[in-house]
Amino acid sequence: MFTIPLFVLFGAMAVGCALAMVAQRNPLYSAISLIGVFVSLACLYMTLQAPFIAAVQVIVYAGAIMVLVVFVIMLLNVEEEVRRPVRLRFLVPVGVLLAAILIGEAAFILKLPGAASRIDAFGQRPSDVGLTASIGTALFTEYLLPFEVTSVLILMALVGAITLARRTATPRLAAPGNVDTEPPELGPRGEVFIRPGDTAETGRAFARHQLQRGEAAASAKRTGEEGER
């Protein structure tokens, strides 16, 4: 009885939030509008008697993913978008034309002879589509191979992210020539401080190079004094 009014209500909410998401200049407001789209879609799934998909929509998309998106936006401190002149102006009428074609196609399908009776018969037919048991059975029987391939792809992405984010302890002064670009830190007795990221070999190379530089400077000073005499 209330299926069509609820569908129209939540569909209008989803379309309105989607338009607000695109029209907003502030990315944080766009993310909040996208959360409204996800919640509206979850309500539409509930009207279609698919509670599991609706719960996943709210928990995964409106919950975890959007929290991550909002966190990244706030972390990067993204400012409002600056309006720039649109170069591809012909895309605007093309988009309007495609939207009109889509609306006309949907209206034509709904106005076909017998479409309303088929929709009512489908709505009254008992179905387990969207339930937890039916989705689990389909994933581990008919769609087992795509499910496992997707799991492997996610695992590969996780390993790649860990590999890229890992910081290896590389010596900061691999060659003695780098000492000139980064002066050493000496203690009160002339000892060399090892910075974070340095290794024992780096410290020894550092000390040897400093000793060689000191001996060369002392030798040049003695040579200059002898020349003056």
Polypeptide structure, described:
With 229 residues, this protein is mostly helical. It has 2 domains: 3-165, Four Helix Bundle (Hemerythrin (Met), subunit A) (Up-down Bundle); 176-228. It is 69% helix and 0% strand. The radius of gyration is 33 Å and the shape is elongated. The termini are far apart.
Shape field: elongated
How many β-strand runs?
0
CATH homologous superfamily (4th level) name of the largest domain: NADH-ubiquinone/plastoquinone oxidoreductase chain 6, subunit NuoJ
* SSE class: mainly alpha
Structure, briefly:
By secondary structure, this protein is an all-alpha fold. It is built from eight helices and no strands.
How would the blueprint of this fold be written?
Layout: H1 3-23, H2 27-47, H3 51-76, H4 91-110, H5 115-124, H6 132-139, H7 144-165, H8 200-228
Helix pairs in contact: 1-2, 2-3
